[in-house]
Amino acid sequence: MQNEKLITNSIDASELSFNDFKSIVINDYKIAFESRQASVLGRREVLTGKAKFGIFGDGKEVPQIAMAKAFKNGDWRSGYYRDQTFAFATGISTIKEFFAQLYANPTEGADPFSGGRQMNCHFATKSVNEDGSWNDLTQIKNCSSDISPTGGQMARLVGLAYASKLFRNNKELDYLKNFSVNGNEVAFGTIGNASTSEGVFFEAINAAGVLQIPMAISIWDDAYGISVPAKYQTTKEDISEVLKGFQRDSENLGYEIYKVKGWDYPALCEVYENAINVCREEHIPVLIHVTELTQPQGHSTSGSHERYKSKDRLAWETEHDCILKMREWMLESAIVTEEEILEVEKNAKIFVRNAQKEAWNEFLDSIKPEQKQVVDFINGLAKHQPELSKISSGLASTADAQRREVFTAARKAIRLSANFSSAERDEFLSWYKEQTDLNYERYNSKLHTEGKESPDQITVVDAEYDDLSKMVDGREVLNACFNENFARDQRLVAFGEDLGNIGDVNQGFAGLQAKFGELRITDTGIREMTIMGQGIGLAMRGLKPIAEIQYLDYLIFALNVLSDDLASLSYRTKGIQKAPVIVRTRGHRLEGVWHSGSPISMLLGSLRGMHLCVPRNMTQAAGMYNTLFRADEPAVVIECLNGYRLKEKLPKNVGDFTVPLGKAEVLETGTDITVVSYGSTLRIIQEAAEELATMGISVEIIDPQTLLPFDKANVCATSLAKTNKLLVVDEDVPGGASAYILQEILEKQKGYFLLDGQPKTLTAKAHRPPFGSDGDYFSKPSVDDVIETIYNMMHDANPSKYPSIF
């Protein structure tokens, strides 16, 4: 009865009858066979034009069945886009939902993972309700939203597993009953063997080994990465051989490493049962290298693997197909008869075909009413313009019209009828505007969670001062803010390089590790991608992480994780998952190529879906942290590197006052010119304004405080209505963040119409600053640069009053 025990896993198999055992095995085979049929049919749907592209999990079915047996309620998956069989076996997805996602159906409930926004095999479970409140994550099998970038799932996997360690070891978190049961949850990761060549894989493997967390990584090894064989991918052509040094022993902590053939159903069940038990009970990371897998349909629908695999390899893959091998084992073991297994296969084909048809018909049926309405509307317009009937007849004859074709026809008819007013056109326009709102909801909504804990919903509390308020270093304001909040909210954790023992390189966390413990304020190794991943995973499991990157320049090392995963999480799941990570870093003015970067345009282009906070001093930073600690959306906060030892007044309510995001502030009022900037540069502008005042020039200085969002109350445009002149001062490269700010003011706020002269930008040079104070002076905007640029703008407006300086 050994097979019965290892195949049923969590079921008590001691008294299991043969018929029960047979039923379990047949059901496993049924799921695997149905998944294969879904792959075959899915590929056909792409090649016939019904879907745009497809990647499928064929060849990986049997190991995923074994993995699913060990996956329990409360566990998490951070996986690879070939895990459809696992999703079917765990109930995370149905076959019909799989096809709905393939067709990109945005209808509510059709694709519950992404609302039609992600390609097939990108799964997610519902962590968050419509109002932003959390579900009970201990009662469901959890799947973090998949992403396509190879290896990208590894960073977040570290955080999902690390959360279990914190829940088990920090008893102050016991009250969070909906997120963990004593840290017993395992984080399951999957990855293709070729993707183990990615740096993020090695970084995550090392991080998990250091942290000793319940992370179980499965490597699906089919010996290729698209057309590139393992000999070009991996040293020794074997990733588990490469990683042998991570194997734990009697003297050193590390991994348990397992290796198993992907077509051996009994062995797979045994390995997964043993590995996950170790991982769950001992909090030891495990690596399961599943070898000798195949890819019967090739990498994707974009090509054929016959182009790059030899005849011998193709013949071997046919012989070692995991479903065929499981079928052979079932027959040889007398578990089923040929007739029984043929019946299972026949019914599976029918079931999958019916699910596909139902998904396709529902997709079309959701569009057909719109198609008919547009045809009718255009026919109404054709009474006055007969030539429009060609558009309506073309749309009416399109049998499987998709929404793009419907709205292309609608918009063309509206354009061509612009000179022909009629009641029919008015009705058409009214319908079109309603549909525009619906399409925004379908395709563009939920960039942010926008729930009851949105930053916009956080009460604005002003900083309070009295006669006893002390002048302190800026770093002390931050330290006091963190101290108050860590005492208030047990969910807060912070980690990063040099953050714990020494309290960060600028002393914002000085003394706090000793007070709150190493589990809450933690040093990490130099691994920016997995520092971000730790933050994402912890936040997805209900904690409030501060993930620190020592300098803004170093954030570039983790930009892929932030951009591909965190920034798009709410959007790509249509709001069913969130990760309120606060990324803390420091930058702007200092000295040298590597510690004075302000690559703000890079962040603006990559991090839509996150908030980007650029406080000018540490008091403003503390107020933003206070807002973010109470909110549930991710953000980057960039502290001014040269502001930690500048004196600021310590607020009485340092842990409670809040700075709203998107609220610009007028720092100095003026009448002649509006100057907009952020961060450290504002002090330079304020100094320049003093000399300009002696020259008869009155400068209005505006600090947007956050760039994402930017000046929601249109403070900049209000200022321009008074001054009619605009200068944007920016430490980024020419055309960097300054171009974004100009677009916001001139286009979105309609500031263009308020100008009486050309708007100007004053930026850093196109290169990074060289080392030394002179390097800073000649590379980034200086007081002299600001004075002379503003003066020249005034000269252009009134040369007689302001004669040329040079």
From TrEMBL:
Q: Does the keyword Oxidoreductase apply?
A: yes
Give the EC class as a word.
oxidoreductase
User: What CDD domains has UniProt attached to this entry?
Assistant: TPP_E1_PDC_ADC_BCADC (cd02000)
Q: Name one GO biological process term.
A: response to nutrient
**Cofactor(s) required for function per UniProt:** thiamine diphosphate
A single Gene Ontology MF term assigned here is: branched-chain 2-oxo acid dehydrogenase activity
Annotated ranges, domain Transketolase-like pyrimidine-binding: 472-646
The record, for SUPFAM superfamilies, names: Thiamin diphosphate-binding fold (THDP-binding) (SSF52518), TK C-terminal domain-like (SSF52922)
A Pfam family (short name) is Transketolase_C
Which UniProt key words apply to this protein? Answer: Oxidoreductase, Thiamine pyrophosphate
- Give EC number(s), comma-separated: 1.2.4.4
Instruction: Identify the InterPro entries for this entry.
Output: DH_E1, THDP-binding, Transketo_C/PFOR_II, Transketolase-like_Pyr-bd, Transketolase_C
Known PANTHER family for this protein? 2-OXOISOVALERATE DEHYDROGENASE SUBUNIT BETA, MITOCHONDRIAL, 2-OXOISOVALERATE DEHYDROGENASE SUBUNIT BETA-RELATED
What is known about what this protein does?
Answer: E1 component of the 2-oxoglutarate dehydrogenase (OGDH) complex which catalyzes the decarboxylation of 2-oxoglutarate, the first step in the conversion of 2-oxoglutarate to succinyl-CoA and CO(2).
Q: What is this protein called?
A: 3-methyl-2-oxobutanoate dehydrogenase (2-methylpropanoyl-transferring)
